[in-house]
Amino acid sequence: MATVGFTLTFWAWDLIAPLAGDYKDRLHLSSFQQSLLVAVPVLVGSVGRIPVGALTDRYGAKLMFPLMSALTIVPVLLLIPARDSYGLMLVVGFFLGLGGTTFAIGIPLVNSWFPPSKRGFALGVFGMGMGGVALSGYLTPRIAKHGYHLPFLVVAVALAGYAVLAVLLITDRPDRPVPTASLGSRLGQAGRLRVTWELSALYAIGFGGIVAFGVYLPTYLKTWYQLSPTDAGSKAAGFALATVVFRPIGGWLSDRVHPALVTAGALGLVALLAIVQAFDPTLYPGGTIALLCMGAGLGTASGSVFALVSQVTPQPQVGSVTGIVGAMGGLGGFVPPLVMGAIYSAKDSYSIGFMLLSDLALAGCVYAYTRMRTSRPVAEEPLSAGTSPAARGDAATGPRPLR
User: What does R_g of the chain's alpha carbons equal in angstroms?
Assistant: First the structure.
């Protein structure tokens, strides 16, 4: 249920990007204005994860998931009357960011139900919900061909149906620790943890790269390789699919070796292939292979970073830490589309943007390998006395030693 909800709200969060070319032509936008239009929901959805994660620690996912899903319906429907005004589109895009906050709801929910030795894979499966970006890239322009209003109506109905099912089917762990401190106090405690900001930096590269490609890749493919909006959306959906498939693989690998090693290897691959793409290879086969493999590397890194989060964060603070780390990941996706648009407007080239991605990925690779390998796990909180040994699994023994 968490993965389905994450997928649908991510589809809603990314509704503008696949239609950005249409908005550019309709509203006569510059490359920077177009980039800002697709980046605003990313910014709001990222920052919004901080309070939503802390609220999830307090009130649980059973309340927060259906609530945020239902609230997202409003801006989805408002995209219909706002289509002819750039100012209104920016305002609606601001509230569309609500869809991006559900990541901070699902992580503490899934994390609480699984023992430490299985959390990497479980969180990776939940992370596959970012496939909502792939769904949006592939389906939104195709549905729009049958009527401009149709994709927004389809997503709104899907969100409404999910909100009802979430009320009925999502269950918080009965003995989950419920913090009693104020929202500000809990966010302050999470913010004082050094590992929160270390993980934030790594996640800003991994997941931020995914978000940036998700919102800007259709524009890049249309502008640089002269693809039609439908073809560009399809190719972008293929990239997103690679990130989705490899996210649980990153979590699965992190259950077996230290997640910092997985992160370092994945970001090293991204750094190498970003250099390849900076030299503007032909789309077939060079560009396609480079972009798909970058997607695989970014997906793997995203899964391994949150496997590390689950190891080093106390259970009562998972939502708060997740909110901050998730926000930084989303913010990592906010800046690159603006940079790429500005660089292309000034230089008629995307090469500088890909070289910057390579530099960031290499820095993340080195830091993950040299610093994060020494991170120590926190002690697992005890389960309630009424929990059976079968239900406890290996959670009772606490996290496994780092290897």
Answer: 20
pTM: 0.73
Please say if the pLDDT value at position 401 is more than 60.
Answer: no
Q: What is the per-residue pLDDT for 376?
A: 59
Cis peptide leading into residue 285 (ω within 30°): yes
pLDDT at residue 249, rounded to an integer? 93
Q: How far is Cα of residue 355 from the mean position of the Cα atoms in its chain?
A: 22
Per the CB < 8 A criterion, the answer to whether 108 and 21 are in contact is no
Residue with tokens 């609530």: 67
What is residue 315's predicted lDDT score, i.e. its pLDDT? Answer: 66
Nearest to 308 by CA among 58, 152, 174, 107: 107
Classify residue 193 by its DSSP letter. -
Q: Which own/partner contact pairs does 29-33 have at CB distance under 8 Å and 24+ positions apart?
A: 29/86, 30/345, 31/219, 31/223, 31/341, 31/342, 31/344, 31/345, 32/338, 32/341, 32/342, 32/345, 33/86
Lowest mean pLDDT among 66-80, 187-201, 333-347: 333-347
Residue type, 351: S
- 402: pLDDT strictly greater than 60: no
Report CA-CA distances (Å) from 243 to 106, 181, 303, 401.
Answer: 18, 37, 10, 28
CA 45 from chain centre, in angstroms, equals 10
pLDDT in tens, 7-30: 999 999 989 988 887 888 888 888
Q: Which of 96, 71, 41 is nearest to 160 (CA)?
A: 71
CA 402 to chain centre: 26
In the chain, helix, strand, coil percent, each to 5?
A: 80, 0, 20
| Single-letter code of the amino acid located at 139 | L
Task: Specify the 3-state DSSP secondary structure of 305.
Answer: helix
Q: How far apart are the first and last CA of the chain?
A: 32
User: What pLDDT digit, counting tens, does each position of 214-224 carry?
Assistant: 777 888 888 88
What is the Cα 143 distance to its own chain's centre? Answer: 24
Q: Is 331 exposed, middle or buried (0-12, 13-18, 19+ CB in 10 A)?
A: buried
